[in-house]
Structure prediction request, 151 residues.
Amino acid sequence: MPNLNKPSSLLAFDFGLKQIGVAYGQTLTNNAKGIAIIKAVDGVPQWSEISAVIEEWEPNIVLVGLPLNMDDSESELSGRSRKFARRLVGRFNVEVQMVDERLTSQEAKSFVRDQAENQKGRTHDLTKIDHIAASLILQSWLNDPSLGQQP
Prediction:
């Protein structure tokens, strides 16, 4: 468990089979921001891009969204998300925690739709959904670090 009295920087990943949203946040400012979308092929990320993001942002903690079903059971993607988290530990020697990501994609889609409605004439930019979902995962951890669990 991290020392929450010391400021920490965090990265969060919203794992997907086609793309992975990335967000950055800090315990000092208590906010999260989507920063990137990394392409994946059948759940296999472009590890060079993951490496570049980790090197640039130098996180103390890395969070990975855990897609659970509404009844708390693991979804089809849960095992793949856990595998991705374990690979992050092995490749980059970073502390990784899993965070329940239920409904973050729906919340992100709603956010994008609301923004488009507020900016008349603009279309929904659905490419942002994954990094918005990653920022929601990170923000939920910032609000309650006890949500983090081991991969």
Notes: Residues 40 and 46 are 6 Å apart (CA to CA). Residues 78-92 form the longest helix (15 residues).
